[in-house]
Amino acid sequence: RDQIAMTNVYSLLDCENVLDEVKKHPMATPFLDPVPWKQLGLLSYPKLIKRPMDFGTIGKNLAAGKYSSSLEFCDDMELVFRNAKTFNLPESDIYVMTEKVEKEYRSQLAKVEPIARQSRKKSGPVEPRNFTDMEKRELGKAIAAMNSKQLERVIELIEKHQPNLVKETTTEIELDINTLTPLFLTELYMHVKACTKKKKRSRDKDGGPSSKRRKISTVVA
Known about the structure:
mainly alpha, single chain, two-stranded parallel ribbon, 10 helices
């Protein structure tokens, strides 16, 4: 996978612009909509491709605010090309078209300035997104399962967004997920994802003793 997409974070508006430019490529037509495998008689397609993806679906996801960051956008773009290369033979026309459109995607992405560089010029690179009730429930469960070291960052975010919940004598903080702002939810979500990635690399060890331990209980209607 391309290192640009793996290491850099871009604004979702830039991602939308990249997608628009890639869709203009003369060979992008096969990737604009879901593969009509039934109409084409490609009965083996759903057996080989477990997670279909296309530019049209990615565009709808961007418009609906389903991506929390550009990393998810890049994952789906990569999935489009990976699926095409998995199903089609290297010498086929579609395979060749895939390589050319993929090259155009990487070229367009390389023109975009990452948020990491932009953040040196201006603050607030996090883009708030809307969360479904199910996503809020999953977020609440993930926070409730965190160890004390992971909760330190959650408490920092609470102090930032809802400082009234944290007092010196507070030992347990009740966090009502439904009342949180989109920005607060987004920052919590990003922290949960970061913890999940670390867990995949190695098992998390619970943090050592801290000056003040607090328990956080989440409430989701």
